[in-house]
Amino acid sequence: MITPTRLFDFPYYQLENAPTDAAFVTKYDGKWIKTSTQEYIDKANAISRALLRMGVKKNDKIAVISTTNRTEWNIMDIGILQIGAQNIPIYPTICAEDYEYVLNHSECVYCFISDEEILQKVNKIKSKTGLKEVYSFNQIEDCKHYSELFELGKDTTNQNDVETLKNNVKPTDLATIIYTSGTTGKPKGVMLSHKNMTSNVMDSASRVPLKQDETRILSFLPICHVFERVLIYIYQHAGASIYFAEAIDKIGDNAKEIKPNMMSVVPRLLEKVYDKIIDKAENLSGIKKFLFYWAVGLGEIWEPYKKNGAWYEFKLSIANKLIFSKWRAGLGGELHTMVSGSAALQPRLVRIFSAAGMQIMEGYGLTETSPVVSVGKYADHKFKIGTVGKPINNVDIKIAEDGEILIKGPNVMLGYYKDPEKTASVMSGDYFHSGDKGEIDQDGFIKITGRKKEMFKTSGGKYVIPTLLENELKQSRFIEQIMVIGESEKMPAALIQLNFEFIKDWIEIKKHDIGTSHEAIANSEIVNNRIQKEVDICNEKFAKWEKIKLFRLTPDVWSLDAGHLTPTLKMKRDVIKEKYKSLVESIYRP
């Protein structure tokens, strides 16, 4: 088969080049159930036949909302796309009102959901939408089950209609609309064509160290987000077996069961994994504790391509046998690569995990660029710590006069759905304005220096890049989240959410009489003084005007459900600032 040019070409390409009995594997009732390449295609065709009998036409929109990644999502994806309709993936965690907005704005005619919790939210607003019916992947009382489509599609007499529609889908046709989780206002519908995404898959694939027929993938980042979705297509193209994690808190258990070779991650997850490893080390004593921190110390100075010399590599081999092998065992023992995206990653974590034999390939991209713009690759010397690699094939990057990253390539979106003005505002000819600031070094590596909108100027006229300070302070085990503020104010300051779990243990060890409620901890003078030490250490690395002069501790956990974070775990800065308005006022106008 020729190179795929439409998203539904990938399973057919896999069938011809690397068919597998485990294209997708999902756990049902405690048992991993495999779906072969052939079964995947057969079921997708049955879905297509059923959708045609349900009156779905070319360019109709169908919503798919799933709490976890699962085989059914992918079957629906191909079944929808190959008849020229569009898959509208929706984040499961957004509120019912946002469901209503997305379903109406995209004009969805059907909706497929995973479970009862999502059904309850959809049912709240269903009457205010144009939905004809809702189907569930789980068996739910009073909800149609998606298996009804297999029954409806069992009759193959209209398969020729499916083939005709499939053949008529052009690479430039719209494939999907992905609604970005904006930090303010209503989400924007990013229109991506088959060409946008297939070109991104093909141009990124060479950066992913996949070995045909022997790579097991653990997938858990939301497939409704374009990052994981494009990776899923890359894995399909390579003939890998994709296992879907049961839940984010089951990643460790699932990894031990399936022994993955690769998975994608976001920085927040890696930070949590590392913190848990360090927490366990605190319970060690004597030589075991000494060896553990000796190994971590080696990891912190790791350099790629054996730049530290033979003696360092010898010591590292010992650390790997004694310490790092146990880290790998905690994730199945065979994990060699993690692909990281969505936000900036601390260089320290790149060093430590890479030293431990689990290389991290950090990439950069946006929903509007389908998403990959650049990514690191250890082979071919395309890897440099502190950068997001080099641009992928066929993608051109230039830096504007104000430092903004501009992107041109076949991966740049068709535009924002029903919003030509917004589309025009982010385009200069063929170049997309990313909103991110960055640099390209003499070797062609890209370094992200901050978000244009997040970078601010103090009243003294000095520029501050909050993400640099935030990433430095998040290395502290006392700090879970931090947001640097100070736009048009006399100085930078910070709102900090403590790592309450760690601090409770610290209080117990130190025998401080503080109390265990979050409010008591946040208001404690002892805790505030300890955080001041962390801030002081951080400040030493920054210029006078960048230093955090004051901070306030928030008494609650910043979460997706409470509205502090987007579904990709980025901070909603405006929301956080508004929620803690009184704390901000106490800093600048006491």
Structural commentary:
This protein is α/β, with parallel strands linked by helices and 590 residues long. The strands form six sheets. The chain has a nine-stranded mixed beta sheet with strand order 2-1-11-10-12-13-14-15-16, with helices on both faces. The protein has a five-stranded parallel beta sheet with strand order 4-3-5-6-7, with helices on both faces. Helix 9 links the parallel strand 10 and strand 11 (241-244). Helix 4 packs across helix 5 (116-125). It is globular and about 75 Å long. It starts with 8 loop residues before the first helix and ends with a helix.
List its salient traits:
nine-stranded mixed beta sheet; 38% helix; 590 residues; single chain; 21 helices; alpha/beta
Beta-strand percent range? 15-25%
What is the overall number of helices? 21
- Class from secondary-structure proportions: alpha/beta
Low-pLDDT runs: none
Strand order of the largest sheet: 2-1-11-10-12-13-14-15-16
Instruction: Label the overall shape.
Output: globular
The beta-strand count equals 27
In angstroms, what is the radius of gyration?
25 Å
Largest sheet: 9 strands, mixed
Helix content: 25-40%
Mean pLDDT: 93
- What's the N-to-C terminus distance? 69 Å
Task: Summarize the structure in short.
With 590 residues, the protein is an alpha/beta fold. Helices cover 38% and strands 21% of the residues. The strands form six sheets. A nine-stranded mixed beta sheet has the order 2-1-11-10-12-13-14-15-16, sandwiched between helices. A five-stranded parallel beta sheet has the order 4-3-5-6-7, with helices on both faces.
